[in-house]
Amino acid sequence: MLRQQYSLEKLRSTLIPSNQWRPFPVAADRQAWSAVPTAVREAYLAEAAQKHGYAWPELPATLFMGYARKGNRSEYEAVYFQRRTTLFTLTIAEAIDGQGQYLDDIINGVWALCEESFWGLPAHNNNIHGYPLPDIDEPIVDLFAAETAAQLAWIAYLHRDALDKVSPVIVRRIQDEIRRRIHRPCQQRTDFWWMGYAGGALNNWTPWIVSNWLNCLLLVEDDQHLRATMIHKAITALDRFLDKHPSDGGCDEGPGYWGRAGASVFDCLELLFLASNGAINVYDQPLIKKLGEYFVKIHIADDWMVNFADAAARVGASPTLLYAFGQRVDSPDLRQMGLWASQRPIDAAARIPSSLRVLSGLFTFNEPYQAATTAIQAPYLRYAWLDVIEVLTARDQAGRSDGLFLAAKGGHNAESHNHNDVGSFIVYAKGRPLCVDAGVDTYSKKTFSGQRYDLWAMQSAYHSLLPVIDDVQQQPGGRFRASAVQATDNVQESSLSLDIASAYPPEAKIASWHRSITLVRGRGVRVVDDFALREPVKTITLRLLTPSLISEDAPGKFRLRTQALPNAGAAADGALTMSPALPMTTESLPMLPAGKLAGVWGDALQAMVFTWEAPPQTGRLETWITLA
């Protein structure tokens, strides 16, 4: 898409030199920064006031080694991200305020980051020797080494005048560190897997790192020949990601990762657009528009999103990012979603802030801030079918979040951030969770190891009535997939039908397991399982996860009642009937204290466990999920 259309020679003649590129006002432009919307000004200044005189926490070697020694990611990352979040808040606040009161705090933060041996995370410290500490002679370019570099590059861009008055060493140190840690390794190496030279699968790492690499090249590199050469290498990596991307625009990593997958593709394209005065422009490509509109298609209500794979059920949406994406690709739905998201409070302390996105929202696409007091609904699409990643979404009525919402998936069990969940589904009622995918708990060393599927949240046993046959579940791998997949939609119904037998190993003894998952508008969600087993089995066990309170009115008839969830959330009211009426017990699900799952579900999440003893070799199970 990019590397052929924009050759190295064309880049050299098209790109604005780094010393002339001024995409946004610098902090010394007081007229521009004084015009920042009041809500943004107040949010950042209020947050920064709490950080004035900030004592930058240390990142000792033993904390770094906590990952190698005990598999813990959280302890190091908590301090690591707090340093960067605080520095970003101070950076924007000083640009808004312009009085110099946060400048020393910024200098301390910049120096603290420059003194770190590795800008990445311990979990990404894949040096060739396997050392538990980073090797400064082998700089690794991971997600957050690149993210840190871009953050520092924008600090130098915004505040260079003020920093140089203190000491020219500060900006020079930033630039030297970026060249040493990012530019030289990316120039010299082709074995970073995210570059795509090895030909394997790519994921959010590629566009996310490339977007930050481009930030640094455009802002820091003053050798214009080298700058263009490296930008061509960067867009070649991005092209490899796009070449392999599902043509439906779907992100099999889920909506949280979309923010650094499809949305980072947009960051890359926007940087190239800005750095060439619009001469580098592929916004008219159908795939790019689909990448953006994916986020609209999987939106349920409020901040609840369809969360297959390692996705969180609640995902904050950047209003200016969505609006900007919508403007560039001419998507009314994306623009509308951006305006809708602007009605939420401004987050001046985001865990992983993006300088590009914030600056673009302030100075290029600031319409969401101007519309923040206007009552605007999200698009709430009636139906969407992503035919490559095999995800269906449907709701009772377009433009409204009341009624029922259904998401269902086919696919395979080698997806990025995979869960074994072929044939899984999610149901929300009146915009609240009723039958859910738990998501993923706080990452640890085990999450991305050979023990991944020892974690209950990754197993098919804990996904939406997927059968466990005599303790045999779905297995990970590309050959474990759905077959005979078909999506249909009409005024009355939206349905996904598939056979999930091939998602199981032979030991499951399944000849066929045909599942249809249907939203019958105005009535409910119907799940029908028609199965045939090759030989008799002892037990079929099926689990359905819900955050609602469970009561059994009669055999096969259950009432689900609302209860409070964290962060002002609430579970839905609903009802479930099953035929035949299988015995049901409940199972509490273990979660890490203060982990990701507890942050969404609190202690509310339970599994309804249905047990079918001595089932027939051929049979049917029909389940209805309805409003209360």
UniProtKB/TrEMBL annotation:
Q: This protein is called what?
A: Heparinase II/III-like C-terminal domain-containing protein
Q: Which Pfam families match?
A: Hepar_II_III_C
Instruction: Select a single GO molecular function from the record's annotations and give it.
Output: lyase activity
GO CC annotation: cell envelope
* Domain of life according to the entry: Bacteria
Q: Where is each Heparinase II/III-like C-terminal domain found? A: 407-540
Q: What InterPro entries does the record point to? A: Chondroitin_lyas, Hepar_II_III_C
Q: What is its main location?
A: other
The root-end lineage is: Bacteria, Pseudomonadati, Lentisphaerota, Oligosphaeria, Oligosphaerales
Localization: Cell envelope
